[in-house]
Amino acid sequence: MYHHIKKLMYTVNVGTPDPRFGNMLLEQFGGANGELAAAMQYSIQGLNCDDPDRKDMLMDIGTEELSHLEIVGILARMHLKPMKKSRDSAEADPLIAIAGGGGVGLFNSMGDAWTADYLKITGELDVDLRSNIAAEARAKIVYERLINFCDDPGTKDALQFLMTREITHMKAFTAALESLGKDPFSIGNIAPTPGLVDEYFNDSTGVGDEGETDVRGPWNEGGEWKIVEPPELEQGVEAHNGKTVAKTRKDDIEQGGKTRIKKSA
Amino acid sequence: MYHHIKKLMYTVNVGTPDPRFGNMLLEQFGGANGELAAAMQYSIQGLNCDDPDRKDMLMDIGTEELSHLEIVGILARMHLKPMKKSRDSAEADPLIAIAGGGGVGLFNSMGDAWTADYLKITGELDVDLRSNIAAEARAKIVYERLINFCDDPGTKDALQFLMTREITHMKAFTAALESLGKDPFSIGNIAPTPGLVDEYFNDSTGVGDEGETDVRGPWNEGGEWKIVEPPELEQGVEAHNGKTVAKTRKDDIEQGGKTRIKKSA
Amino acid sequence: MYHHIKKLMYTVNVGTPDPRFGNMLLEQFGGANGELAAAMQYSIQGLNCDDPDRKDMLMDIGTEELSHLEIVGILARMHLKPMKKSRDSAEADPLIAIAGGGGVGLFNSMGDAWTADYLKITGELDVDLRSNIAAEARAKIVYERLINFCDDPGTKDALQFLMTREITHMKAFTAALESLGKDPFSIGNIAPTPGLVDEYFNDSTGVGDEGETDVRGPWNEGGEWKIVEPPELEQGVEAHNGKTVAKTRKDDIEQGGKTRIKKSA
Amino acid sequence: MYHHIKKLMYTVNVGTPDPRFGNMLLEQFGGANGELAAAMQYSIQGLNCDDPDRKDMLMDIGTEELSHLEIVGILARMHLKPMKKSRDSAEADPLIAIAGGGGVGLFNSMGDAWTADYLKITGELDVDLRSNIAAEARAKIVYERLINFCDDPGTKDALQFLMTREITHMKAFTAALESLGKDPFSIGNIAPTPGLVDEYFNDSTGVGDEGETDVRGPWNEGGEWKIVEPPELEQGVEAHNGKTVAKTRKDDIEQGGKTRIKKSA
Amino acid sequence: MYHHIKKLMYTVNVGTPDPRFGNMLLEQFGGANGELAAAMQYSIQGLNCDDPDRKDMLMDIGTEELSHLEIVGILARMHLKPMKKSRDSAEADPLIAIAGGGGVGLFNSMGDAWTADYLKITGELDVDLRSNIAAEARAKIVYERLINFCDDPGTKDALQFLMTREITHMKAFTAALESLGKDPFSIGNIAPTPGLVDEYFNDSTGVGDEGETDVRGPWNEGGEWKIVEPPELEQGVEAHNGKTVAKTRKDDIEQGGKTRIKKSA
Amino acid sequence: MYHHIKKLMYTVNVGTPDPRFGNMLLEQFGGANGELAAAMQYSIQGLNCDDPDRKDMLMDIGTEELSHLEIVGILARMHLKPMKKSRDSAEADPLIAIAGGGGVGLFNSMGDAWTADYLKITGELDVDLRSNIAAEARAKIVYERLINFCDDPGTKDALQFLMTREITHMKAFTAALESLGKDPFSIGNIAPTPGLVDEYFNDSTGVGDEGETDVRGPWNEGGEWKIVEPPELEQGVEAHNGKTVAKTRKDDIEQGGKTRIKKSA
After folding, report:
1. CA distances from E256 to A217, F10, F66 (A)
2. With CB atoms 3.0 to 4.6 Å apart as the test, which of B177, D12, D170, F120 could cross-link to D136 if both were Cys?
């Protein structure tokens, strides 16, 4: 059950309304990484969650995001209000101006309606927590960019509050994931195929126009890693009983595709 | 520049086509966590990436996902083919049957057209890597569920291959993130507000119908954590100079909303 | 600011889970006339509202709908849970089964992601109240249909609760609209053109295959109504200074389009 | 069966094309409250309608809206045409300029493709009429806003014509609804639960930053209304046999959620 | 201006309603290649068209498609009607059953709302005509598939009528395109680069699992065609002054990406 | 299986970045007629294709379009990069600036996420080839418009390359279609109804405000064409045994709908 308290979680003060900045703010109201997306993702994960401990956390944070949605909405509303009367302001977001009368709607900065396609909900707790960690990181960087484009001190204060809370949530989700005590690469119940799981396929090769080349780093070298290069890859990969077997079909491929050409009937 | 080799990365064998399972497989062809989503997310992150080392990795893995898309497409195609002729099969996915003639399209198992709203691309490398780690975890669990609903040994083999590769990628992205050497909660350049960042807001309280209560765990207790309870929260949170100041407005809230009622004009 | 109380607003009891009914229930979770649509429509109207009295009402009802969303979500979750393990159940909604692990998501019964395109928010209070009255009527009829397709007594009880509340809200919105004291056809500030406003254009004529014909009723006859028939309509309607002037352009139209035919170059 | 007459229902004259205004006009061509939405909503309701009298009205008005779509399209086309050649104009709507060559498409002012998600069609006649009344009110206010942003006299004339017709339709739908002779809150066949239906839940309480408080008005006071305050609400609402029974579970809730805390394992 | 005549363009007789077939029929009501898509595509092209001769044709055919939309809608309505009462029927399309009360809506067979993203409108007449020829071919094959899944003679008659008309329109659009007298590969005003335009890039090579190989046919051999093979392609293509110059950067690529590997910092 | 070569297919040089032009370029990256749409349409058609000869061609061209996607992406990236830092640039596309940090995403010039609804894939080879011919014509005209709005010589060079390739593909698809040796109006297996197929319905009549009238051209006159005028049309068309029979129902229609009016109950 939800209850609404009329007070904002963080009091909003806006000096001079800036409709074009108000339009940008909509990214965090009705955008892909915005507050409704956060509120819905965590609350619905909570609703599905069978672990009562982490369910409590999901509901705590999901509810806080609803309060954030309200803050962003009020902020955007104050910046967008001139759109109702000023033709010049209206051009910054005609959808808000004409269809919305200068009021906010669940749209992003380009007028796209919010969609649940933004959400990542799998019903697998540790997977969902990973999605949430990433979601908070994205929201943090979006708030940072908004702060960088903002001139109004009161608005910046509120954005700093909201940005800070994303890091709080990132920490909480990370602690919740770690407290599950699972191996970081153990997802679900079916084990990946040994051997194959450590093969790094070198699928992009050559030298780029700016001199880019193949690179070795801890993501493909050291530990168990084994790099598989194109000539081997192109023979096909078959995994049985935990080891990778190159299926041999003699004379299979000739470079450049110049052979085995048949005429179309 | 891309090149296509006619051979599949993993040879597909299907015993008895199962159109309803073919419909399920579309989740990994045109669905939210499917192979096109993976291919596009990583490849476009790579295109935007200014770090030439991790850009190489993003292109390697993005390209591998294109090869996976082809495998899933061929698998689904083989399972869906009876839809062209059998009315009973066609009912499993009339869109594929009637609009597609039994061929695959970029739809999920419920016929929703693939949309770039599924993608998470921020242009901030460490953030993108977190999104990718989560994306691979989601893809892994989806393949596991497909395997659990599948009876055909050849199909299961191919799905096991694809599922394994998701863990490979999860490892690579994790190593790439760690090799950046950043603090795990340091995102972007603007620091979160000290003090406030360690406050955990207890926004969901009470006792649930099945006895759910508030819980303490490493996500809100220990270390720097400080829990803020509703009475304090409801007075409003203001953050200045690194510490949280409860804004005092006397007599602000009365429980139950029974006071300060004014008549509507 | 929002607060969550762990108790459901209405306790849910489900006897035998019925996954296909759970799929139907999603209409009221993530569907066009469902609880999220109601919660968002009223809450965002409230956020934009400059009339503090009716704003309070919009927030009261918007918040109640969030509590309803939670009830429907729990109900659907209980009916959908078998999808995680049973292939037969999974076929009722493969998206929920495979991508969601049997947990609810913000989709309707056909797997369409919830979209803010469902919402009607104009920032004009009396217009918004009309949209809300209609929204509640739609939600009521959808709950009635769900009850009619439902066999489980506990589920029916909860649906009866939810259905009843829609009528409560319909009454409240109607009272709020009437208390504004405006003429029922006075919207905004610009007056419609007198005369023209009372003309009923008879744009569909003839006799249908089942004998349908033109009908006169209080929507086109009596009071100020004046019916305009096709021959007059087809000469073009021009409104100046409050009266409708039929623009006369001699020989303008010949029935059947057989005249004035020119050859294409 | 439809027939097209080459003459516009209202002759359009545009003085100086204004591409940014043309972009705004698209709200009424391919937007959520625009003419295609109206035409499709009423015509499809008519197609489904079993009441031959009101079906005739739905077809009359649905067809008129098609003629309006044509007028708005021609108006927008005339304002948008400079986009084809002028880079500055093209920036007002690059989608129209580059993909459309300066011609209109079924997009709104922010380039969103028209979607049937805008429509409200339930197959329940009185409910559909309420949706239509609200739809006409929305369309009226949108035309008013367009008129307020418009400088061109010929365009204003056409918009005044279109705006007036929305009120005409609002009157017709209202008369049609009233002529059904139903109780205004009687929707469908299943009666709401007596008692519960008259309870107003006070779900938003406290005092806002600008002094907003709880309000009593005809939407929650007088007549049968009974206000339910949060402490009672939070115990859970159960409705049996026409009266609301508060489910008593002793010691259920402690304010602030500070008790019953258990440690996470 | 439009006019509606109550008579259907083709009288519809349905023997036994078949709700699952009714669901399939929605492909041609609210689907990607359906009648609304056709009506809107041609009518809006007509609205934008500056060639008065072909504009007349676009309006003729666009209007006919509206009459087809009505026929398909009535057909589908008759097949879907049992959904209102029968739970078993309702499972064929819960969206229609529960949200629509058994009435049609602008959805396809999988419940996706119709979207203007289906339309192809460029404002370039000859290009639009090519899009229309393709659209008619698609609609024809969809009707054929529906006929093949249909048991009801009356429904088949109506579908045969509709299918036939698509070929009529295909002929008309083809004649209109040919009568423009343009070179078939001359689009717009800017000439393609000579030489380069005749190069066929062999971007897919090798031998497939079922023996697929490179093929020569009239689409890459004979006439002006020149095939460019991968080794040449991979050096980069630069077109100046009408001829293709291979940009030489010595030692550029080594097969397999085994060289120029640098260590990640 | 796919392989990526780091070199661009066409080397890109950008003089002065132009963020508003970069925004326009997104039409060809994530827009309806852009390179991803082309790549996916042809590659998935190829995946479904049972004709090994034309399948090779579909894979060749589908793969080339992936290489084009990369070129457009790099071009757009270079033009959009200033958005990360400049508020003025950011206003050209706030979604790219704020959510994307100045990096490209799969959006069009108005921020709409790419959707598979843009694709035309039917699983019927000759139909798909027609869709491809039209798609290439659309892409060509879009590139031409971009060139016309572009000031940067390096960008123009790359666009000229891409535009030229569309004509190449148009030629290849046309040759592939013609080499099938089918009658141009023979689609699928069911023959259209003789007689009816040659009737041109004159559904738009009268004289327009600018003097538009009915036109005769090769699309409705000559050869087998027979024009059917409204009076005949409005009696209903019934096709049996290969000839069109006007169903006679006496006194069926009276002009203007003035008769047979019944009073609403």
Report:
1. 18, 21, 21
2. D170
Give the DSSP per-residue string, D188-206. SSSPPPTTGGGEEE--EES
Nearest to A60 among B33, B167, B202 (CB): B202
User: For residue A70, is it left (φ>0), alpha (ψ between -120 and 50) or beta?
Assistant: alpha
Percent pLDDT > 90 in chain F is 85
What does DSSP assign to residue A149? T
List the structure tokens of C230.
């096709």
DSSP state of C113: B
Question: Side-chain half-sphere of D29: how many Cα atoms within 13 Å?
Answer: 30
Instruction: Tell me if D109 and A101 make a contact (CB, 8 A cut-off).
Output: no
Quick one: pLDDT at residue E256? 39
CA C116: distance to chain centroid? 13
Q: Which of F4, F113, F122 sits opposite B117 (nearest CB)?
A: F113
CB contact under 8 A, B138 and A115: no
**Which residues from A are below 8 Å from C114, CB to CB?**
115-116
Place of tokens 């695959």: B104
> Which tens digit of pLDDT belongs to each residue from E203-246?
999 998 888 899 999 999 999 999 999 988 988 775 433 344 33
- Widest Cα–Cα separation across chain F: 76
Query: F52 — contact with chain E (CB < 8 Å)?
Result: yes
Tens place of pLDDT per residue across chain E (265 aa): 999 999 999 999 999 999 999 999 999 999 999 999 999 999 999 999 999 999 999 999 999 999 999 999 999 999 999 999 999 999 999 999 999 999 999 999 999 999 999 999 999 999 999 999 999 999 999 999 999 999 999 999 999 999 999 999 999 999 999 999 999 999 999 999 999 999 999 999 999 888 889 999 999 999 999 999 998 898 877 543 334 433 333 333 333 333 456 777 6
The 10s digit of each residue's pLDDT in A65-101 is: 999 999 999 999 999 999 999 999 999 999 999 999 9
Best CA proximity match to B74, nearest among B20, B29, B138, B112: B29
Q: Extract the tokens encoding C48.
A: 């934009």
In DSSP notation, A172-189 reads: HHHHHHHTT---TT--SS
| Mutation for E interface: B6, B49, B59, B93, most E CBs within 10 A | B6
Per the CB < 8 Å rule, is D209 touching A7?
yes
Any CB–CB contact under 8 A between F54 and chain E?
A: yes
Q: Does the global pTM surpass 0.90? A: yes
User: CB count, 10 Å around CB of D86?
Assistant: 15
Residue count of chain D, please give it: 265
Contact call for residues D113 and D37 (beta carbons, < 8 A): no
User: Inter-axis angle of helices F35-48 and F52-80, to 10 degrees?
Assistant: 160
Residue F146's CB is within 10 A of a number of other CB atoms, namely: 23
Q: Are strands B2-5 and F2-5 parallel, antiparallel or unpaired?
A: antiparallel
Chain D neighbours (≥3 Cβ pairs under 8 A) are: A, B, C, E, F
Backbone angles phi, psi at F199, to 5 degrees: -90, 130
**Residue to test with chain C: of E53, E98, E117, E129, most C Cβ within 10 A:** E98
In one letter, which amino acid is B165? Answer: R
D61 touches chain E (CB under 8 A): no
Rounded to an integer, what is the distance from CA F238 to the centroid of its chain? 33
Give the distance from residue D211's alpha carbon to the nearest chain E alpha carbon, in angstroms.
Answer: 41
Nearest residue, CB atoms, B258 vs list D229, D253, D257: D229
Is E214 at the interface with chain A, CB within 8 A? yes
Q: Which residue type does D244 have?
A: T
Sign of the CA dihedral A77, A80, A86, A87? Answer: negative
Instruction: Locate the chain B residue with the closest alpha carbon to E92.
Output: B91
| Cα–Cα distance for residue pair F109/A111, rounded to 1 Å | 12
Touching check for E137 and chain B: CB below 8 Å? no
